[in-house]
Each structure stands twice: as structure tokens, then as C-alpha cells.
Amino acid sequence: MSPKSLSALNRTIITCTRCPRLVRWRRRVAAEKTRRFADCEYWGKPIPGFGDPRARFLLVGLAPAAHGGNRTGRMFTGDRSGDWLYRALHKAGFAAKPESIDTSDGQKLQGCYITATCRCAPPQNKLLPEEIRNCRPYLHHELRLLKKISVVLGLGKVGFESVFQSFRELAMTNLSRKPAFGHGVEIALNERVTLLGSFHPSQQNTFTGRLTEEMFDAVFQRAVHILGRDT
Q1: Where residue 219 sits, what CATH number does that domain have?
Q2: Rounded distance, CA 188 to CA 170, Å?
Q3: Does residue 230 carry a pLDDT above 80?
């Protein structure tokens, strides 16, 4: 049975055990912790989506970080990728605050919703193909429930391709060929929805300069421009 609301869907997501490898890993990380968060109580479960149910802007990432979302229970919260993301969201007017520390920090999103290709932290940040397939129905449900979406941002190649595959599987695009991922790529999925691509704000990309703050901000400003054009 399909969930009737995002809150119902999220209640289902946090009880998911479809991927044994990911279940073992997220539980192990939550039990063993890391030294800098030794006093924290880890979430250790799948991470639900976060944001505005009336969102017109959807972000799709890879998966929660072991000591970020897997610890805090919120997408892109408590790690350096999240620092980059929420700073950019705040600049673009989508986030109430420029940082997301934990679920009690008062952070709110306006016109924006954040989700991921997979809802559990994977070992070495690497997902298996079957894990991506197992989790995709949750993204399908979100795309059906978020009825006002006009722009979708795929963070990283996996997030970008996950969006396209979902739209194709849901018969929400007539595109037959998978678009090539790249930073700043822009694809019209249908008459109403535009897919944007961005390098993921991972430390591997931000520390090396492959992704700069200026580059990242430009993608969000492009989203703002498209949304303004469509109003």
C-alpha cells in the first residue's frame, strides 16, 4: 500500500531492513561510535527525508554519512558535507539557518526538500547496485507525494542518475537515453521539471578544490532562477 503522506512514508523508511549489509553497518557504527562523538547517542536507523512538503525544489544525495546523518537522524546534518549544503541553501533562501547541527537546532526548510538515493550509511560511502534498487521505491513515493516539484538537484553522479532512473521508471519523462552527469548540467525531464547536476559537497571534492563555494552557489542560484521563471 502506498503511503498517503510524507510523514507516513518517513515512518516506514525508519523501520526498513531491506539491505542486510547496510543494517549491520549502521548499527555497528552507532554502537562503536567515533571518539569525537563518544558521548552522543546515535540514531543508527535509516534517515527519513527532511523539509517542506510543499517544496518546489528537491535535492537528492547519495546516502547518510556514518557519523553525520547516521548519528543525528537528519539528512546532511552533523558533517562537513552538510555544512556546505546548508550554507548554500541559506544563501539561496531555502534554509532558516546556514548550518544544520542536530534535530533540535531549529533548522527549517522553505520550498525545499532533501532526500537521498539510499537512506542508510554505507561502508566506505559505497553502495551496491542492489542496495540502490532496494531503496528506490522510497524515492518513487516521494516524487509522487511532492506534487509541486519543479527543480531537482542531483548531488553527485549517483544522486543525479537516481533521479533520472526514477523519472523514467515512473513514466514521468520521455527521455530514453541517460543524460551525462556533470557539474552544472541542466536537463528538462518533462514540461514541468528540470534536473540539475552538481558535484557532491564531499570532503574529497571540497578539500581538493574540484568543487568550490562559488561553483556550488551558482547551481543554487540557477535553481532559484528557474523557480522564479516558472512562477
Answers
A1: 3.40.470.10
A2: 16
A3: no
